[in-house]
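Before surveying the methods themselves, let us examine one representative protein, pairing a chain with its fold in C-alpha cell form.
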Amino acid sequence: MSDSLDFTIRLTIFCIIHSLLAAPRIKNHIKRLAGRPLTGYRLAYNLFSMVLFGWVMLAWQSTSVLYVLPGIWSLVLHGLQFIILWTGLVCLRQTDLAGFLGIRPVDEDKPPAFATTGCYAVVRHPLYLLGILFLLLNPVITTRWIVLTLFSIPYFIFGALLEERRMIRQLGDIYRQYQKQVPFIIPRMKRQISVG
C-alpha cells in the first residue's frame, strides 16, 4: 500500500470515528450501555481524538515538499497561524472552554451555551472558519498537507451543517433568527446598515 493511500485511509477512519462518537445518538447509546451518566465522556472523547489524529499524522512521513514561502513571509504566516489559534481560544472561552475540553462536566440535557456576540457575531461557526484559515496559511506546503486540507475543509463544513441541525432542534426559532442575521462560515465584507 502506498504511503498516500495509507494516510488517506487513516484520515477517513479518523473522520468517521470522530463524527460517530460526537453524535448525540451514539452518546446516548453508550450511556444506556453504561447504565449511568457519562460524566467524563467529553474528556475521554478529546483524548481519544488526539491519539487517533496522532496515529493519522504518523503515516506518510516522507512526503514531498511542494512549496516553502521564502524569508520573512514564512514568519508572517506562522504569526497569522498563532493569531488564529489565539482567536480560537477566545471563541472557545465565549461558549465554555472547560466544557469543550471536558475538564468540567456538561449537562447534555441542557441547551448548549449559545453565544451571539464576539466571534459568533462575525460567523455562526468561527472555529471551523479558523481551522480552515489555519490550514490554508501554512507556509510549508507538502503533498500530505494538501491532502489533509482537502479532507478537512469539507469535513468542517459537514460538521457545521450537523451542528446547525442540532442547534435548531434545541433552540428552534431563536437559532433560526440568528441564522438570518449572521453568515454561516464566510464573514460579510460589509455590514448592512438598517435604515428605519
Q: What stands out?
A: The longest helix spans residues 143-171.
